[in-house]
Every structure is written in C-alpha cells, then in structure tokens.
Amino acid sequence: MNLDRKKLVKKLKEERFIDARKISEIEKKCRENEETANIENESPEGRNYTVSVAVPGSILDNAQTHELRTYLAGQIARAAAIFEVDEIVVFDEFSKTTEKLYGFTQNSNILMVKILRYLECPQYLRKHMFPLQKDLRYAGLLNPLDCFHHFRVTDLSVPYREGVVLDKSVKAGRGSFVYVGLHKVNQIFFFCVYSFAKEAWSLRQES
C-alpha cells in the first residue's frame, strides 16, 4: 500500500513538474515574441528609395530683410523634415555662383545652403561646427526640426549618436575624447569617421 502511494505521489510530482515546465516555456516564448515585436516597432526597416527636392536659391530674394530670408529658409527645412525628404538640392538658376562667392552674405544660394546645413546639424554640435558668422546671426528665429538624429540629453537608449572629436591630450593607445551631447564626455577607443567630418572642417575654414 505504501509503495503504491509513493508511486502515486511521484507521478503527481512529475506531472506538476511537467506542467510547470510547460508554463515556463510558454511564458518564455511570449516574452520573446513581445521583445521581437518591440524591436520591430522601434526599428522599422528603411526605405529602398530616397526623396530629393530641388529648390532655387533665388526664392530668398523675395524676402525683404535678412530676418525674413532666414525664417523662409527655416520653413523650407521644416517642410522637408515633416515629409521625410532625404536631400535638398539648392541650384542657381542663373549659373552665377562660384567658389569665390562662398561666404558672401548677399548671395541667396550660399545663404540657403548655410542655413540648411545649420538646421540639419544636431543642436549639441552646432557650436562646434558653426562659429559665429553674419549669415547665421538670426539663427535664433529658426524653429527646431526635431529630426531623428537630433537626440536630447535624456535620450540614453539610442544605438548611436553623432559626435565631434575633442582636442584633448590622451595617452598613446587610449583612444580619443568625443562629445556626443551628453553631460559626460565619452572616451572611446574605436570609432568610425564619416565623410561629413571633412565637410564640417571645411565649413569652419571657410567661415
């Protein structure tokens, strides 16, 4: 009798263990499905095409003052950001703009390019990339674009950030200090240098 009872108890324990294991497996699968769904929602697949818009720089000539020209260029950038435009091409319909005119405030093509580049740059990098200059003296009138790569200090879970390498002395083989818009300057040992870094440096030299 005791032997049969022990077998029965053992069988019940095994069934409970199997049921508990099944429940834990089901819960695990549910968690994995939820995590996969969250990742898919947070990181949607990119488009297989790009959207480009061509705008004549002479459109700024319709504005009477430099403040209005700055605001008009900002509205163009804001509309492009809302409709997810990947590229804005500023063209000179009179074919008079040359490299010698770069930096000339009265040239509407150059002015629009500078303002669009300023707005595209993340807000925490602008003081590093764009020194004080006359063309951007009314930059305070520009509305923020709030683009996907314009992260705030509180955005700590983003997979990447644009940054600028600081001119700080470090020991050999210890990497570089990079400012990425956080309260603390990050020291990294491996990083990728994109082509826009050269362009940003040329902007500083020209301005």
Automatic annotation (TrEMBL):
InterPro entries xref list: Alpha/beta_knot_MTases, Put_MeTrfase-C9orf114-like, tRNA_m1G_MTases_N
Taxonomic superkingdom: Eukaryota
Stated family: Belongs to the class IV-like SAM-binding methyltransferase superfamily.
Identification of the protein by name: Uncharacterized protein
Organism: Soboliphyme baturini
